[in-house]
Amino acid sequence: MRLYSLSVLYKGDPKVHLLKAAYDVSTFNFFQRSSVQEFMTFTSQLIAERSALGSRASVKEQEYLCHVYVRSDGLAGVVIADNEYPQRVCFTLLDKVLDEFSRQVSKMDWPSGSPATISYSALDGYLSKYQVRTP
């Protein structure tokens, strides 16, 4: 059971853009890591774009399950995990991250924000904390 990606996005007009993301691509071959990360970023944006405001969904993409939560204020979160990772845990994580993000980052910054301009550093910690370690 693994988490690969945790992203916070903003679903505004005309399209969705990434505000902040964390990735764990350590299980992939060194030469594949950047393309896997690009795939996860693209997939996260696409799924958030196709999801309605105020909705939650789980979408299978290749061997991954992508869990998306788009709040009614346009803030969206996407977790990319393997097929065995519990769906309920993913949505609990998304709830927690989006609540905390909306308290720490001004709503004024969401429409124009980017990973370079948004200062929110908790995603890596959450990705690591929610990673299921196999003995």
The structural class is alpha+beta
What is the ordering of alpha helices and beta strands?
EEHEEEHH
Q: Report the strand count.
A: 5
Q: What is the number of helical segments per DSSP (H or I, 4+ residues)?
A: 3
Order of strands, widest sheet: 2-1-5-4-3
As a percent range, the share of helical residues equals: 25-40%
CATH architectural type: 2-Layer Sandwich
Biggest beta sheet summary: 5 strands, antiparallel
Radius of gyration: 14 Å
Strand content: 25-35%
Mean pLDDT: 93
Could you please say which CATH topology applies here?
Beta-Lactamase
Overall CATH class = Alpha Beta
Corresponding CATH superfamily: Longin domain
Q: Would you mind describing this structure in some detail?
A:
The chain has 135 residues and is of the alpha+beta class. The chain is built from 3 helices and 5 strands. It has one domain (3-130): 2-Layer Sandwich (Beta-Lactamase). Helices cover 33% and strands 29% of the residues. The relative contact order is 0.23. The mean pLDDT is 93.
In short:
The protein has 135 residues and is of the alpha+beta class.
Task: Please render the helix and strand layout as text.
Blueprint: E1 3-11, E2 16-23, H1 33-50, E3 55-61, E4 64-70, E5 75-82, H2 87-104, H3 122-129
Antiparallel strand pairs: 1-2, 1-5, 3-4, 4-5
What descriptive keywords fit this protein?
Beta-Lactamase; 135 residues; single chain; prenylation; lipoprotein; alpha+beta; 3 helices
